[in-house]
Structures are given as C-alpha cells and as structure tokens.
Design a protein that fits this description.
By secondary structure, this protein is α/β, with parallel strands linked by helices. Helix content is about 45%, strand content about 25%. It contains six helices and nine strands. Helix 5 links the parallel strand 6 and strand 7. Helix 1 packs across helix 2.
C-alpha cells in the first residue's frame, strides 16, 4: 500500500490519498478567480521529481489552460517541502519580482516560510495559498496571514488503509487500486 505519496518504482496493492492533480486543479481554479484572471505568480515546489509536486503543478497547468487568462508563472523553484527553504526561496522570488501577485506553495511548510518572507518584504499585498490544510496554516488563513490552503485531512488516509488492509487479510477482499480522499480549498 502507498499512502499519500504514490509509489511509482514498485508494484503496489493500492494507493490511498488525495488526487494531487485534482488538488492542483482546485488551487488553480481558486488562483484564477482570486486574481480575476490576471497576474504574476510563483510556485514553491517540492523535491525535484516528487510525484505529488509534479502532479500538483500538472493540475495547476490544467486549470490555467482551461480558460483564457493573463496569469504568468514568473518562477517555479524547489523549496523541498521545508519551511526554512520556503522562506529563502520566497525571499529570493519576491526580491527579483517586485510585481509578484501570488505565491502558490505546494505544501504548507513552505507556505509558512513564505509568510515570513512576505512579512519581511513589507509586501502584504502578495497573496499566499498553501496545500495540505495543516492546523497552523488553517489558523494563518483565519488570521489573514494566508489567503487559502487546500484541505487534505490525513484521518481518512489512515482509516481507509486500516479498513482495507484488515478486510484484505481477514476476508480476502481484493482492494481497489485507488482510494481518493476529498479535497477542498479553504
């Protein structure tokens, strides 16, 4: 079983997690609406070659290509899903793009670092969206430090895995190849 990150280098019984392409797409639709179809955005990516990072970017690109818009991706740089790297990369992007409108962090740890970079820059007009809906970023959204995050509740991952694995072992039930959990921009 692969939970959250789909394993591509080995044969698996089942993948349990959110559809990262769908999540990137939902975030992309939100970004288009939030920017009213025009603006400059930057992406804080996960590690190079990471399945979820690539899928989230694919979903974003799908949303951007679906409707006519004037949104330009001015930077797309890895920050390795780390808060400190999110801070450093966001700082560099903000410094080199004085007309930046929005940062899309492909996980909430990088978004939390980007909050610090935005605050340090004095550019409180930069919109920030994260991904995962961890409690600290939900509070940041509530407090106005971030505009949004994609809710990705890990509870269904664990409960689905346990139910499917127990049913497989006890009752011989062959699991479905994919179990997707619900995603929503908050």
């Amino acid at each position: 079983f692969c939970i959250d990150n789909n394993c591509t280098a080995t044969e698996i019984t089942s993948f349990i997690g959110g559809d990262s392409v769908e999540g990137g797409y939902l975030c992309g639709k939100w970004i288009i609406e939030e920017l009213d179809g025009t603006g400059k955005i930057a992406i804080l990516e996960g590690p190079a070659g990471n399945f979820n990072s690539n899928a989230r970017i694919e979903g974003l690109n799908n949303a951007l290509s679906e409707v006519e818009n004037d949104i330009e991706i001015v930077a797309s740089v890895t920050a390795n899903y780390k808060r400190d790297q999110g801070l450093n990369v966001a700082n560099d992007i903000i410094t080199s793009n004085p007309d930046l409108d929005l940062i899309f962090a492909l996980n909430d740890e990088m978004a939390l670092g980007a909050i610090e970079a935005i605050n340090a820059s004095g550019r409180d007009d930069i919109i920030l969206i994260g991904y995962n809906g961890v409690p600290e970023t939900v509070v940041a959204v509530y407090d106005g430090k971030m505009a949004a995050t994609l809710e990705y509740d890990p509870t269904p991952l664990a409960s689905t895995f346990l139910n499917v694995a127990v049913d497989m072992v006890r009752n011989g039930v062959i699991p479905e190849p994919i179990y997707n959990t619900t995603l929503a921009v908050i």
